[in-house]
Amino acid sequence: MSLIIQSVLGYGILVLIPFLHRTVEPDPTGRRFSLLWMAAGAGALSLFFTVQSHFGIFFAVLWLLWCIGNSITKFLKFLIWGQDHFGVFLNFIASVLLVGGSIWLLSTRFSFPFLGFGEPWKTLTAVHFHFSGFLLVSVFAVYRDKVRNCSSILESKIYIAFNCFYLFGFVLVAIGLTGLRTIELWGTSVLFCSALVNLYLLLKSVWKDSLIYDQAVILCIGVSGFISFSLALMYSWRIFPTLNVHWMILTHGILNAFLLLPLLFYLTDRQKIRFPVRKFSFSKIRSNGKIESDFFHSYLSEENQKEGLTDDFSEFRREDFDPDLIHPSVRNFYESTNKYELNVKVAPNRFFRFTWKFLVKPFFAKLQQLNLPDKDKKILGTINSISCEKDGRPSPRGWMRVDAETGKPIYAAAYSMHKTDRTTYMNIAFPLPYFNMTSVLHIEYSDRPSGIQLTTIHTLHPLGDQGVYLVFAGLGVRLPLDETIEVWFDQGLKARHKMWFLGWHYLTLDYTMDLKHK
């Protein structure tokens, strides 16, 4: 029986995990997959050396190191996407479970108990972490966007909730295996219910647009999943005394390993379901300390002087956004920003007014950057053409905004645009010491007639690039900040800038934009 368990675990590591990775995370160069295949080969091979064998321990350590590296990579992807993408977060949790599984695998290479467990429980726990943990949770993670796009809002929220329940049940089962029978029973029940709900919503999301062949595969997955999860529940509750651990391995284990999971991976490959990839350039500009009004002079380009935040507002055109429907004054502001001065009225949250004045403002005021207005004032701005080579993005330009009364900088921002999947985003970098803070804005129609809204919020476009990032050495980490800027014409050109931190609305700035007096 031990040989069967080891063979199932080795098969999962050597075959299923590489197949899943190649399916959901395409690798054009093949380098990452080659590294995975070598590490998986080492992990699987380690199982077939005798206990205490130096070779077995060495190969198991290689697999553990790859799993740790994989988890770090998934964590960095989670930082890039931030709190807005549950699927990427769930994929990171799956990678952590794989690290746990690789630690349990390493424990099987030693003869002494691990956390009080001997064989076959060490190997069975490693199987549990690799299969029920990493593999199944990874599948649930990659289908998150498919469920969101093809299901109702309620079903989408249920999918998130039951994935959380599944992880909770997984933890309960792990605790219950230490001998706490009641916790094990509850954990298995939560796992059973949540796995079935997740599997149903997952399969439902691909059923409608699938061919008859794929629908037959979906039905096989549904039936095998129900049988497999039911067997696990019956074993846990000891409904049939004859269903002991050996029968559990030969039924639930074999069914999961050789039918349910391979069919799920095959369906995922057929449906071309992938994890989202976020690829766009951040500005290389950063400050060395205090921002002066001539900050952008060292980055100037020899090209013609830019006049606006964009050369042509029509660059934002896409299927669901027509720039021709936007008021001409709004378009002119973005194409000829140099011609305008701004007057701002401030409406901060009361608590923010206090914390900003006494705790935060002294730092940003000293930097003369991101120095949010705390009282009504006039702001003057100047556009400068910036070198593409020094900035690292296409057609950048700097917008220096200064207090008209004192002449001191308030904001220094380097503007550019990038395009992802036929959507053009405004890409704005605020230089900071050693870093920059970049706001990527998605443009859409405003609720106000002929107006626009630029936003970092993901509600309407959940897979977009928008967000606020802290950028260091080219790596952007998504911050829990959001902003929305509305621009419209109503007896004059106006704008409203709202800002949030962790969903808390802390500041509103109302602008009027007037042509500069010559």
Automatic annotation (TrEMBL):
The chain crosses the membrane at residues 6-21, 88-106, 126-143, 158-179, 185-203, 215-235, 247-268. Pfam families: YndJ. It comes from the Bacteria. The keyword Transmembrane helix applies. The keyword Repeat does not apply. Keywords: Membrane, Transmembrane, Transmembrane helix. This is Membrane protein. It comes from Leptospira kobayashii. The lineage of its organism: Bacteria, Pseudomonadati, Spirochaetota, Spirochaetia, Leptospirales.
